[in-house]
Amino acid sequence: MTTKIETADLAGAGEKLLAHSKSAKFTARRGLVVELYPFIYGASARMSAPAISQFLANEQGIRLSSVTINKAIKDPATNWNLFFDLIEPAARTFSKSAGTSMGKLLFAKQYFFNSPENRIVDAAVKLLVREEVAKAAGILRTKWFNIDWEIRLKARPFLEHRLREKGR
Predict the structure, then answer these.
(1) pLDDT tens, 106-142?
(2) Cα 1 to the chain's mean position, in Å?
(3) Are the C-beta atoms of 99 and 133 separated by less than 8 Å?
(4) Backbone torsions φ then ψ of 95, nearest 5 degrees
(5) What is the residue-wise DSSP string for 99-155?
(6) Within a 10 A sphere around the Cβ of 79, how many other Cβ atoms?
(7) Average pLDDT, stretch 92-102?
(8) Is the pLDDT reported for residue 29 higher than 60?
(9) Helix (H, G, I), strand (E, B) or coil at 48
(10) DSSP letter, residue 55
(11) Which residues, other chains included, contact 126 with Cβ-Cβ below 8 Å and sequence gap of 6+?
(12) pTM reported for the whole predicted model
């Protein structure tokens, strides 16, 4: 049985929805799948999209549907490139300062120290380099070099193609 809904009723429902969205807790996290993509990609080798979704919800309090995860897994070229959009400015800044190509920088097995005991080294580096280079190093350390080496290598064909297209 279908109910005939008047246009005025729809406008009223739409207004109520919009008003509710303004007072409700903010839940939209559109870039979340992009930021987590390298880890989702890595986990997908051993886990299904529903299992990844369930783990993120239960263990991390992150709600990401299995449908969204599955779409991301099935389109690695798009998602690696979207992820690269997040780190490319930092990679460009740091590689220019270091006098190396972004490709060599990004695919070095380890470029930064990962140990928490390196606070003194970090402080010294911040004093010796420009602020934007230090920020770029921080972004690369937290968003790129904390990804497993094997996963970064799997990203290489997608990112190298993009770097070649841009002539870098």
Answers:
(1) 888 766 555 454 544 555 455 455 788 888 888 998 8
(2) 45
(3) no
(4) -65, -40
(5) TS-HHHHHTSS--S---GGGHHHHHHHHHHS-HHHHHHHHHHHHHTTTS-HHHHHHH
(6) 22
(7) 84
(8) no
(9) coil
(10) H
(11) 134
(12) 0.71
